[in-house]
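ZP: hey, is the octanoyl-coenzyme A complex queued? I don't see it on the tracker
AM: it wasn't, my bad. submitting now with these inputs:
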Amino acid sequence: MPYEFILTETRGRVELITLNRPQALNALNHKLVSEVMEALEAFDQNEAVGAMVIAGNERAFAAGADIKELADQNAQQIKESDHVAVFNRIMSIRKPIIAAVSGYALGGGCELAMSCDMIVASESAKFGQPEINIGVIPGAGGTQRLVRAVGKALAMEMILNNRTLSAQEAQQFGLVNRVVSVDQFLNEALKLAEEIAGRAPVAVRVAKKLINQAYELSLKEGLGEEKREFYDLFTTEDQKEGMKAFVEKRKPNWRGR
Ligand code: CO8
């Protein structure tokens, strides 16, 4: 399917989505975000796909929402166009998504990265929520996900006072999974995605769902959900195959059911 602002590429069981507005530092206009969501939803439905990677380029993952697109909107227009609703469609994707971040991940760019399940960063990555500089606040999850990722004190500083995090700081505070060199960040993200895509697909999807639910449920409810899903996995062929393969000292052959 031809897209205007993203590129897609199949790498084995991994689909790579590259944000492709380099001249605007991948600023997230409405069409770009819609294309990302459309691609993710299509890959989520495709059995041949085990995981997705969203990447920018070396200079920018994304420098935020497209300020030029938003600048002249009034309150009614912004509500009607509802950019955030499009953005939030990412929450219904069942397969793992890895963000490959180099350079700027600012505003909506940082929020997009945080909406993914894991982040692989290059040494040049910079994470920030600079919306305060233009008289607004994060609108696509920044005030909520950042607190959960790095804690209240640092989130306050980042959102109220435009503190940016280097890649090393982002790793230290638990925002990113790993930091590698600029020339390796994409390969590293693809490698991680390929490894996960090679694992038992139903178990991966269930685990992703439960981990994300941990933010929303009480511990008691979450443990109840986990127990139910754990028992349910014993209805799958993959549970039989995985345990049999262990006993027979061979590699499992996952069926995804
Ligand atoms: N929107 C539109 N255009 C942008 C953006 C942006 N966010 N960021 C950069 N650009 C454009 C610049 O206008 C410039 O275009 P042109 O060449 O036509 O003038 C080009 O990209 C290159 O940028 P710079 O010349 O500014 O490059 P520098 O290296 O000097 O500076 C910075 C890089 C520091 C990243 C700088 O561009 C900057 O501060 N950008 C804005 C960052 C920002 O404020 N982001 C937050 C935006 S608001 C937001 O994200 C709210 C999210 C709410 C919900 C999201 C729903 C999708």
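AM: back. The CA atoms of residues 67 and 134 lie 9 Å apart.
ZP: great, adding it to the tracker
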